[in-house]
Design goal:
- The chain is α+β, with helices and mostly antiparallel strands.
- It has two domains: 1-33; 46-182, Jelly Rolls (Sandwich), CATH 2.60.120.
- It contains two helices and eight strands, in the order αβαβββββββ.
- Strand 4 and strand 5 (120-121) form a beta hairpin.
- Residues 25-41 have low confidence and may be disordered.
Amino acid sequence: MNNRRLLLILVGISMILFVVVGTSYAYLTFSVTGDDNYIKASCLKLNIIDESEGINLENQQPMTDDAGKNLTNPYTFSVKNVCNTEAKYNIILGVLKEEDITNASNVKMYLTGHQTTEPKVVSESATTLNQSLSSIKASYLIDTATIGVGQTQTYSLRLWIAQNASSFTGGFDNRILIEASPSDEK
């Protein structure tokens, strides 16, 4: 009986060893056939540079588009591509206070830089941006552009209370945000 028990133990150990070796060999020799996959790693970084102070709409009176376009104190900022990859980016106006969202329908904006836009009501712009930034209560797309390697693009943004504003209470606290992605994804 001892011999038979020993034989069963040896056969069991051999089978376990065979399974482990076979599985290890299969795992180590596994290969994928098909098209090559490429991972392209590069830098994607845009700097935003404030060149003037923000715009304060407190105590401002409603005005015409012509007057708004000619305001002498725009918010000026630059977007600089500091990496080795061309980048596509969105310029977004983020509203910081819940109570200022209603004012977005009474505020007009005018952006010069990449392309000059006609004055438009902020709330008529496309809403965008994932709401992962808890400080942003609403966000509006101002412009989309592509910037080359090492290039800088300067913008001037003017905000004013629309001439036909039905009401404007409080302020309009906002922030410029940049969302970027590589422009030639392969």
